[in-house]
User: Which sequence fits this backbone?
């Protein structure tokens, strides 16, 4: 029992550390260089398998004594343009209930079980359900001009954060812009063949209406060869269904938010930031507060970003995104095979039932004929 508890704590620490590392990278002035530093893996025997980021966070905790304080101090130490606050420091498990009734209490096994059982995720929940927020989280949400949800793993990253006590409630009560940044690709075993509206619906079903005002979705064109490589691993481009998004009371914001780094499809953080700043600036214009310090700073930031990236990237006009968004993942193919197999099995079963009924009828008729023949012969002998 003790070993199991220690293992749980270790896994939670690593997972939380990974999320925080990514946040630190994203808020760094030089995030490309910070990415290299934080994700650098040591190869010598004593430190093999560890990244610099994991050692850094462990060191900061030892210096400041408290994990939350050490993360907040990182804003100054690493000259970050913002603060990183983990939503909770309580130990918890992310669990899921599948549509066939199976309960999964280890999130690392979730995708495997969904694919193996050819089912879908019905809901996710956290255990215990009463985890407390880290000090400063609720205040940060209340003070925010814009609350950005995503991108990330829908059921194991985005939704669990919204299930922490008071988080969703505070977001819904906030007057800030609430923006959901849609994933570019589906995730095998979690969101196979999900459209943008299905991602949004899952969030609303778990956190309630009012957590999303806007949805940023990608309309850019991606090199076909890159998409095909993702398809082979079970990933697909997320289909955009505008009408359904609007019917949910969410305003869609289209844009070219995808970029390719090497062989990986990533969100273009600069373009997303530019669009969000523009959203806030336009709102301030509408409120006629052009002399407000916040408006001046935001508008200056927006103009500078436009100067930096007048032509962000070249398009591949010969191939469009839509052409590759209709492919089916391994999960979908396996699901179709399973359905077809079930149909064939049922068809065979029905055919067998007919054969048995016919055989029984023939047997009954033959027995009746034999019985009549026997009686006739018996009485004739008498």
Assistant:
């Amino acid at each position: 029992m003790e070993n199991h508890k220690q293992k749980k704590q270790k896994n939670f620490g690593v997972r939380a550390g990974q999320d925080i590392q990514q946040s630190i990278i994203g808020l760094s002035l030089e995030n490309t260089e910070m990415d290299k530093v934080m994700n650098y893996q040591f190869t010598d025997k004593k430190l093999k398998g560890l990244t610099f980021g994991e050692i850094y966070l462990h060191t900061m905790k030892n210096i400041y004594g408290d994990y939350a304080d050490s993360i907040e101090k990182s804003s100054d130490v690493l000259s970050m343009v913002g603060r990183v606050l983990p939503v909770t420091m309580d130990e918890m498990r992310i669990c899921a209930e599948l549509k066939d009734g199976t309960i999964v209490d280890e999130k690392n096994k979730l995708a495997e079980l969904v694919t193996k059982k050819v089912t879908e995720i019905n809901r996710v929940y956290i255990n215990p359900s009463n985890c407390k927020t880290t000090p400063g989280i609720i205040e940060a949400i209340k003070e925010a001009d814009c609350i950005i949800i995503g991108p990330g793993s829908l059921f194991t990253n985005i939704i669990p954060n919204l299930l922490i006590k008071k988080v969703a409630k505070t977001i819904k009560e906030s007057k800030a812009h609430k923006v959901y940044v849609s994933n570019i690709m589906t995730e095998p075993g979690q969101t196979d063949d999900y459209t943008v509206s299905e991602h949004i619906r899952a969030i609303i079903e778990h956190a309630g209406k009012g957590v999303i005002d806007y949805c940023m979705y990608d309309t850019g064109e991606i090199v076909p060869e890159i998409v095909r490589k993702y398809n082979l691993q079970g990933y697909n481009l997320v289909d955009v269904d505008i009408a359904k998004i609007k019917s949910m009371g969410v305003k869609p914001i289209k844009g070219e938010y995808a970029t390719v780094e090497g062989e990986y499809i990533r969100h273009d953080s600069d373009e997303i930031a530019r669009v969000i700043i523009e959203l806030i600036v336009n709102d301030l214009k509408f409120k006629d507060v052009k002399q407000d310090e916040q408006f001046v700073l935001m508008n200056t930031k927006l103009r500078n970003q436009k100067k930096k990236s007048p032509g962000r990237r070249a398009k591949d006009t010969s191939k469009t995104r839509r052409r590759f968004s209709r492919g089916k993942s391994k999960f979908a193919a396996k699901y179709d095979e399973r359905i077809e197999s079930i149909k064939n099995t049922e068809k065979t079963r029905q055919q067998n039932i007919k054969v048995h009924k016919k055989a029984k009828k023939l047997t009954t008729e033959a027995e009746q004929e034999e019985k009549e023949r026997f009686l006739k012969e018996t009485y004739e002998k008498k």
